[in-house]
Fold this protein.
Amino acid sequence: MSDLRAREASSGEWDGPVVELIEEERTVGVVYLDGATLFTEFHHDDEGDSWAFEVADLQTALDTASAMLLPEGTSLLLEGTTDKQSTQHPVDHLAEEFDDLAVHRGDEDEGFYPVSVAAHIVRQCEALGLAVVSVEGFRLEGAGVNAVAGMSVDTGAAHDGEPWPVFLAGCNVQAMAVLERWARQPELVLALEVGDSDGDRYVL
């Protein structure tokens, strides 16, 4: 795991708003807007070679940079949003799309989803402007489920206090990284909680 992170560039160094990509206090690249399009440029290291980063670390830094540069509420994945989606609360849209894919429902109608379905939910949350604030792993046993020790991540707490765009990006990138780590666990099902920009939270 690298130390890669996004940091707002000092004023006066650039013509417009720019976010620097920093690794161990070295600027390895920049992210900037050209019109309405977001671009990333990487520098070469001291020996003229290209920088190499773990994809998860790079995605986290780029998502953070995007949240810092794009207008609040903007998502890079919002193209193609339908009129129906725009009139629904995003959680209602998730329920309409994924409720039938839950393999189990708890006493309070909490849904439990296979890892592959949970990954689709996280991606759709990004498109709908929702943050996945909690992920918990369970095993189906008989007619019920039992929590798996060590498989509970509160992404919302990890990013608490951050501006909403940064919070949104950080939670969803962390949630997807968790799913990638847990994907090979046999018979695992997941319970997810999501949050919106108003601070409300919903169990799916």
Notes: The longest strand covers residues 131-141. The domain at 83-203 is CATH 3.30.190.30 (Ribulose 1,5 Bisphosphate Carboxylase/Oxygenase). The radius of gyration is 19 Å. The helical segments are 55-69, 83-87, 90-98, 115-128, 155-158, 164-182.
